[in-house]
Amino acid sequence: MFESPRKRSSRSAWSGSREEPREMQPVSAARGNRKACKKKQIQHEGARRCASLPPPSDGGSSAPAGAGQRRTEERAVAANPEETIVRGIFQIEKKSCDVVLTAHRVTWTPIEPETPTGESDTRRREEHVELRDVFAVKVKRRRSVGQQTGGTLLGLTLFCCARKGSKLKEQTIHLNNLSADHCEVWFQHLKDLLSGFADRPKSLKVFVNPASHRKEAYHVYRDEVAPLFKLADIKTDVTITERKGHALAVLKECTLDEYDGVVCVGGDGSVAEVVHGLLLRAQMDAGRDADSIFTPVRAALPLGVIPAGSADIIAYSVHGIRHPVTAAMHIIMGHRQAVDTCSFSSLGRLLRFGFCAMYGFGGRTLALAERHRWMPPSQRREFALIRALANLKPEDCEVSFLPLNVAPGGPQDPRSTWQTTQGLFLNISVMAIPCLCSMAPRGLAPNTSLDNGSMALIAVGNASRSEFVKHLKRYSNLNNQFSFSFVETYTVQAVRLRPRSQAGWVDDNSEDNVEFETKKTPFISSEGTYPWNVDGELLEVPGELLIRVHPQLITLFGVNVEELEDCPVKCSCI
Prior knowledge:
With 574 residues, this protein is an alpha+beta fold. The chain has helices at residues 33-48, 180-194, 217-231, 246-253, 268-286, 313-319, 324-333, 361-370, 377-390, 465-473; strands at 86-92, 95-101, 105-110, 127-130, 134-142, 152-164, 167-176, 203-208, 235-240, 261-266, 303-307, 336-346, 349-354, 356-360, 395-403, 419-431, 455-461, 487-499, 530-534, 537-541, 545-557.
């Protein structure tokens, strides 16, 4: 229940003191009293004119307005979405405007005086905002210094989602009117219409990784995201993760029916854990056996990704930009995008779900970084990259893949058979999403998309260090990074990688290894396992790894970003 704006000195349950526009500052009561009285009189005149179209006929009589109460005529929402629900006068940007509310939009037109000849100006500029772009309506009040509740009613404020390129931001439209009756009618109609957007979440489970990147995830959520969720009247249940696997444990046990979505604030590793937890929970609820090759079921809830990591590839790929406010606005507005997901299995057992994986240079670089976690994050990544390049070695392995053969306009060809290649590879990437990031604006796998039901297999064969570095640099300057003779790309639905080297130890920390012949010496993990980089997390696999793509297995809050504007981002790490 809300309290009527007629009771200006009492608390308002439908505006909330912390949710009011910040620009409301106390003003001197002695300044401009005559102008204020005149302005108040004009706006009350506007309240009397608030009525649905068409206006009452000339022969009809209307009841006089009582003290402190105005009669407002309005129509119920009609079947025609363009039919007027309510109409009235508000001051917008210091201009009196004729404002009309329909089921789809709010439209306003400045009220211009008639010309000396008695004709109205037909050049009046009409403006509007679509209700699908509005996510909140609040009461605007003026309060004294230290006043926490009540205050003088000034009108209503619409909070909208505005887009500039890939970036989304909050935008406000102030509808000023001093009449409590007038504002109450409009407030109720706007609230009712906004509640009809079923895709917009009302309750969210939020995971925040305080150790992500520069330990800034909590501050990102508290300062940039939480205020927007509160403004949109979204209830949140926040868990600050304390260790690796904490979010996974919570998702296995919590009651998901209480929420409309899950949000992760952190880097790619944190997001990967929550994705795995949501999908694993879905398989548990469906009775799937994780120790067998099975067809997984979709996750029950959509996932929102708030970027607070170092690369934020997943957030970048689904938002087109690394921007926490943009990510929050996608969640608030209920923008949803189905996304393909991979399953990673070894020896017939599911290891995890994810979006992308790298073996060879990518896996070895991450393994080196993990062994030097005592370093600051940026220093650790640079050290691992330089050391891996200095000790560049190929992997001796057998790669089998199932091509995606799709006839134009037709389904997958069931006659597809496995193809196999073997040899020395500097790096092998398997990606179900484009993997956009600042160092690769077009993506590490620009030939795939979020929901096309396929994976990109990129096999980088053995080459000299200088040629390999040229290949890496082309990711950042938007040139064709796949035009080298030692790089092969495939569109696939499954990949099986089997290392052919025997278990043994090559100490990457040894200075002597820098002098090894890169064309002959493969890299092997110390414990007889092989390091994989899966969504920025180290996954050590004892042998063969099977990767399968599952079309649109999870839904993320965001959009399908096919093309990005050219941006002058250059890689500074190579």
